[in-house]
Amino acid sequence: MATVYKQNLLTKVREFQDPDNFQKFDRIIADIPSFVNRWPASMGTGMIRDCTSAVADLAKNNLTEDGTVTVSCTGIAQERWDEWMEAEGNQYFELVPGSTWAMFRPTAYKISTNKHFWHRRDDYTFVRTYRKIGSSFTIKRDAWPNIDGYPRRFGHFPFPDSMNDVELSAFRAPVHSGVNEAQELQKWLIKNGIEYSVTTRDDGIQFVRSINSDDASFLGGYVIQFSSDPADWIHLPKEILNHQGPNGPYFNSAVMDRFEGGTNFPGLNELFKPANHRHVMLSSWIVQTHSNEGDLILDPFCSWGSTVAAALVNKRDIIGVEANPGRADNAARVIQDLS
């Protein structure tokens, strides 16, 4: 089962809690809008706080007895969530041990020194999972085994020895427009003596198109950090790979037979490309490790539908809610495509 509602969450909560049609969920996976005026669900400080309160209300009233809520939020939303947990939430919920993690996007690295440049995205930057008091639910990290290197055109992904070897993008306020707009990637490449080529967008913004050096390369994917110890880091590729491939398991093979192409599946990647599904692999990791097969998941801010796609492929049911009409339509097309 998969459904996407083109509605604001504040309206949909009342429907989920209608006594005649009350809806229970096994998991809530919520990337709460946290930047004012960035998206329709974040129009003003009050709306952000209201959306955060709505997720808390759903967690308190609409989860099954063994249900969990996984939240990613920052700034105003994080402050509101922590307020609720301190005032009321900790009467019902406790933090799942070992469930706190941060996500970074590796951007480029210099091979000879193993120096890295990484950046954050607005979404899934600081994540915590809560379970009802008395529940024994844990994050199943072994549901998605890690590998030491991800073979790609630049070779194997090299973890730095520590975060001391990583320079992070700091361009986040008032809205994270990207490392290229802030020229941070270009400055890092120049500082490390790495030649590069750019392409210019219609609005004049220059993007790094290629790195012209055998001693450096672009990276890709996501780095999940459970602690400051590199042994607790996980690298997820961006491309959708065969769950049963030689470098997997990455992505469930349920739909792979429909596409040709060896380990990498261009057909499936192409399916998601028009939908801007940059996070299908990240969402698949979250779904596999933070839920069980057969669960009903609520994604209250489902955006383009990455978690919808991951839930379908990984044999979970999902209900998505999205206030942005274009993104909601796109998420609905995901269901149609994967069906």
Condensed summary:
The protein is of the alpha/beta class and 339 residues long. The chain has 8 helices and 15 strands. The protein has one domain (2-161, 215-338): Rossmann fold (3-Layer(aba) Sandwich).
Quickly name the level 1 CATH class.
Alpha Beta
Name the beta content range: 15-25%
Helix content: 25-40%
Given helix and strand content, the structural type is alpha/beta
* Low-pLDDT runs: 147-155, 242-266
Tally of helical segments: 8
- What's the CATH H-level homologous superfamily? Vaccinia Virus protein VP39
> What value does the Rg take, in angstroms?
20 Å
What's the architecture, going by CATH? Answer: 3-Layer(aba) Sandwich
The beta-strand count equals 15
How many structural domains can be distinguished in the coordinates?
Answer: 1
Could you give the distance between the termini?
10 Å
What's the average pLDDT? Answer: 83
Order of helices and strands: EHEHEHEEEEEHEEEEEHHEHEH
What would you call the shape? globular
Question: Which topology does CATH recognise?
Answer: Rossmann fold
